[in-house]
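[recover] target loaded
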């Protein structure tokens, strides 16, 4: 089941006991509903020995672009690739997967949708990816695939994770029975991601003495204060690595460590990565609707405890900080179930019936490692622990994987799905295991700059 508000937002978002068909379609308008986009036909060149099909097709929000590539030695299986966040621009672009050549060399076909909307529209990601998978025979003139798998990165990891959920199978307009899923650097808990962004920006402003008194503060107001917030917390904000100061900045670092999964290798480097600091800090002042994806505010921190020490109880300074920070209560039912498609923000409940293999970098500051801890808890609570393998990679960046790391994970997943032994993974929840300086070495295949090398075998 989902965690309490202390770890995310509210248990009130749990599924209704009623059948999905009895839940009314939400009538509250969203800002996102009025947005329009343009699907851009891809111009990929087929790799040697493959045929490519690309164009535009109807999606859930409007038109979506697509690309499909099939090798001459096609093995009859299809991999759907779900791309990550593509910003808020008007053009919808298909992104080719990093494993494109590898998949084709093994005989797999792949397909990817641009989705029919930008912004954090995971609903469009799920529905349009599924629609493209179903249209494969029509668009290519080929037989229906014998198996369809899905891989996604970042927001696409959310798409891939949600695509194999029981709720998605019940409510999606476009239904696909995937054989396995590989979400990497993914949003594996849709509530926590926006809890994290709200918590970090609030804590940073409060430590700087510029915390808001009302919610929402407004992005323009927050942006005007941000230079002073940074000056109070960092001695340097020159890319690529920032440096926090020894007082309020150090407190912010430890608050972030605790909010993102606890002590683990490479966290400090990820915290100081200027590119990702700016990505997270740039979300401050928002109204909790995920820039109009939801009809109401999903963010809340009523029971969140902000700590920069590790003692059993908060220090007097921490108690004063928690008493002074703005507290926000989510709106009632901000992410309602729908009858005509998956939710506006599709759920990742751990109710999976197929093999899932995830990968996550330990220092990821944008989509924190805690996603893996919450996903493990949800999958175990649903009785599906044997269907999940998780791997930790020693890197600071978001989605900073090497080709060999991704290929190894994919290869292990498809062997498992085909009836082989369950592959090995990492323990993502035991604090003492994560705090070991060698944590993540088992599946890391390259030493990144600034990251301690793994011990020699």
């Amino acid at each position: 089941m989902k965690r309490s508000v202390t770890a995310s937002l509210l248990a009130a978002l749990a599924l209704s006991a009623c059948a999905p068909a009895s839940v009314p379609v939400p009538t509250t308008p969203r800002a996102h509903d009025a947005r329009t986009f343009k699907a851009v036909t891809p111009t990929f060149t087929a790799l040697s020995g493959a045929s490519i099909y690309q164009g535009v097709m109807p999606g859930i929000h409007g038109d979506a672009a697509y690309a499909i590539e099939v090798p001459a030695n096609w093995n009859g299986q299809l991999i759907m690739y779900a791309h990550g966040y593509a910003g808020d621009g008007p053009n919808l672009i298909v992104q080719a997967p990093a494993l494109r050549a590898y998949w084709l060399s093994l005989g797999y076909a792949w397909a990817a949708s641009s989705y029919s909307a930008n912004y954090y529209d995971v609903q469009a990601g799920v529905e349009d990816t599924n629609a493209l998978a179903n249209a494969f025979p029509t668009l290519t003139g080929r037989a229906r695939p014998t198996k369809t798998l899905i891989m996604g990165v970042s927001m696409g990891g959310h798409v891939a994770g949600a695509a194999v959920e029981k709720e998605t199978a019940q409510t999606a307009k476009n239904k696909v029975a995937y054989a396995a899923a590989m979400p990497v650097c993914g949003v594996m808990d849709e509530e926590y991601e926006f809890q994290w962004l709200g918590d970090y920006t609030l804590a940073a402003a409060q430590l700087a003495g510029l915390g808001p008194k009302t919610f929402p503060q407004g992005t323009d107001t927050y942006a005007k204060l941000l230079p002073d917030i940074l000056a109070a917390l960092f001695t340097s904000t020159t890319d690529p690595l920032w440096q926090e100061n020894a007082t309020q900045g150090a407190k912010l670092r430890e608050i972030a460590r605790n909010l993102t999964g606890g002590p683990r290798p490479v966290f400090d480097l990820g915290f100081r990565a200027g590119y990702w600091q700016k990505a997270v800090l740039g979300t401050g002042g928002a109204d909790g609707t995920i820039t109009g994806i939801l009809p109401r505010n999903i963010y809340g921190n009523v029971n969140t405890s902000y700590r920069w020490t590790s003692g059993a109880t908060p220090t007097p300074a921490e108690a004063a900080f928690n008493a002074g920070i703005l507290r926000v209560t989510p709106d009632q039912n901000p992410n309602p179930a729908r009858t005509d498609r998956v939710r506006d923000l599709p759920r990742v409940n751990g109710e999976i019936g197929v093999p899932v293999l995830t990968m996550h970098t330990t220092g990821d500051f944008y989509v924190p490692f805690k996603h893996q801890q919450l996903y493990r808890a949800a999958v175990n609570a649903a009785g599906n622990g044997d269907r999940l393998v998780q791997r930790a990679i020693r890197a600071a960046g978001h989605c900073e994987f090497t080709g060999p790391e991704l290929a190894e994970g994919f290869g292990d997943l498809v062997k498992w799905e085909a009836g082989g032994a369950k592959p090995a993974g990492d323990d993502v929840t035991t604090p003492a295991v994560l705090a070991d300086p060698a944590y993540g070495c088992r599946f890391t295949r390259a030493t990144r700059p600034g990251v301690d090398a793994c011990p020699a075998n």
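[recover] notes: Residues 13 and 333 are 6 Å apart (CA to CA).
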